[in-house]
Amino acid sequence: MAHRQAQRRSSIHDVASRAGVSAATVSKVLAGVTTVKPENAQRVFDAVEHLGYRVDPLASDMRRAKRRIIGAIMPEFESEFFGQMVSELEGLAEQRGYTLVAASSRESEAREKEVLARMHDWRVAGVVLAPVRNEHGPAAGFMKANGMTGVLIDRVLADDAFDTVSADSAAASAEVARELIGKGHRHILVIGLGQQAATVRARLDGFRAKALELVPDVRIDVVLSESEVEPLRALLHDYFDKGAKRGERPTAVYSLFLKGTLVALSEFRRRGWHCPDDISLVGFDDAEWMQVTWPAIAAVVQPVRQIAAQAMDVLFARIDGGDGPPKARLEPCKVLMRESVGSPGSGPHSGGGNRQ
Amino acid sequence: MAHRQAQRRSSIHDVASRAGVSAATVSKVLAGVTTVKPENAQRVFDAVEHLGYRVDPLASDMRRAKRRIIGAIMPEFESEFFGQMVSELEGLAEQRGYTLVAASSRESEAREKEVLARMHDWRVAGVVLAPVRNEHGPAAGFMKANGMTGVLIDRVLADDAFDTVSADSAAASAEVARELIGKGHRHILVIGLGQQAATVRARLDGFRAKALELVPDVRIDVVLSESEVEPLRALLHDYFDKGAKRGERPTAVYSLFLKGTLVALSEFRRRGWHCPDDISLVGFDDAEWMQVTWPAIAAVVQPVRQIAAQAMDVLFARIDGGDGPPKARLEPCKVLMRESVGSPGSGPHSGGGNRQ
DNA sequence: TTGAAAGCGCTAACAC
DNA sequence: GTGTTAGCGCTTTCAA
């Protein structure tokens, strides 16, 4: 015996014959055309109800040239940030009667382009692309070359062909600088990933500019790993080792991205340093766990909902034929100063205690 | 001037006329049929190359009745677990030439059913459903009623209509029990969410059975919140307050799900308790951050890759016509005992120190 | 107010 | 070996 056999679904013709009208009329009724005789419309509704009929959206799109599908390409799905982003985008697409098809580029530009090509094959109406690196990658070039409609988000600054939406990293980083300087930090280490060039640069520059403005002789060290997280671990290790030899050590670390914050914490662990007594820490990107640890980790919160909402707004404006030069949008972040930040010089386990 | 106008993509007919053959021949060449004259095949390849032609997968599926699309429905996208799951499933689907379309049910059974109906409208070849609650929800019923092909994962035990794949929660929980009992814990609190009935029950029973087997008079308290995380916070608060009045307190907490671990940590914070000196903690579900905090949090690691791989295997077996009664598969977990677990009675900040 | 006809881009039968 | 024909399920002229 065949197990769970998929029965043929009723088509528009089944509805038509049951209602005693043509398929064209059914289509009109379902599309809300008002020129249909009420009596016939009712018969159609009855038939639809009885048969449990539902339009096949793909067949429908087939005829209409533009498909009601939005493609979303994210660097990864594993983090809270992109998880929330996909979730938001999905809801926003649905609200407009579109389906979101999400794909992960797995932090690879090569794959990003492949995935984008697939989206193009699917003839999606538009694409929300969060590039692996920045707006100058091969994927954006592909979109341009193929006349695709799209919006670039997150790791982008501005583009001459596509609208962009991202967090205002520079402003947030300036605020972090103000906070750290205000607490008395004069030697700060900034760590980041060079791959995410667009935003890392903005964050670094925003931080440095404000810090130097407030205290011209502040010392800012920078440790950047080109494209992988693991090397950063080694670089950071070396950095602290060398500093130890010279008897110097930064009093605060600002990590420009989430994994960097984890790497920093893990390096602190290894050395037995505690926040904020031995060293202060602020990370770009918030996560749920950061509030429940000892100490709670200070973080820059990206406005995921706002970015998603803006992205969809501008994307649909383009889909609906909106014209004009592309705009670069920046959404403000929130900076949450939590217990991982204290004042330097208070010495191990002495001041700013957080263990009541 | 119209900005970025999408040019019409070349169709199979464009390729056909350029190669001087019929559309059917092009289709055959591209499908790898070997009966085509090599010379013509070459002309087709040349034309494809020249025009940058790519098959429209949706149009192709339209004709072939079964669409090469797999639907994946997850309770949420925000957590590491489901993020990894979607990522894995996406890769596995691609390997077989299918596209994964993922949707979030947002922990709502009502939405889960709607999303599933949409998948059905899309006529997906199969569905990987991670139900909000368990295998008896309305979504599984819908799948059954509509003869859909699918596999149930994660929050499921066994089903009479669909294959299921999940982590072996009971075995892992038994191991947690063995570890805690071994360390000398005799009063343990277990917290969970009633909504995830299927697995919570398995985890609870597995834990309790083993603990009682090892130490018949062990005390196991249970705090379950019906369906929301927030009430759990309040319940936990009350539980500890009441215990304090009587001067008793569990020496270890086992959280049956990730958010519960966060709630527990946050409650410990509020009371100024530290792990493992004041209380031990083990959580079901691991996360990257758990290794870099002080202390590192002990956790049960679910075998995401294995679950995804098994799910896709059994799903495609069904899609390819595989018959026979549904099977319930359990994949073994790993239990990582980290510093958040110590021995009871060593008193605050006295033993099992983790601050070298 | 309605339905017949013509496809969207593709593939599977079936002739030739 | 290859092309013709006939659709998949739907929408949209356009003529009646």
Automatic annotation (TrEMBL), chains A, B:
Matching entries from SUPFAM superfamilies are given as: lambda repressor-like DNA-binding domains, Periplasmic binding protein-like I
Q: What is the lineage of its organism?
A: Bacteria, Pseudomonadati, Pseudomonadota, Alphaproteobacteria, Hyphomicrobiales
Name the coiled-coil region(s): none
One MF term in GO for this entry? Answer: DNA-binding transcription factor activity
Q: Which SMART domains match?
A: HTH_LACI
What is the designated name of this protein?
A: LacI family transcriptional regulator
What Pfam families does this protein map onto?
LacI, Peripla_BP_3
Q: What InterPro entries does its record include?
A: HTH_LacI (IPR000843), LacI/GalR-like_sensor (IPR046335), Lambda_DNA-bd_dom_sf (IPR010982), Peripla_BP_I (IPR028082)
Alphabetized, the UniProt keywords read: DNA-binding, Repressor, Transcription, Transcription regulation
Domain HTH lacI-type, first and last residues per copy? 10-64
| Repressor keyword on record | yes
Q: Which organism is it from?
A: Mesorhizobium amorphae CCNWGS0123
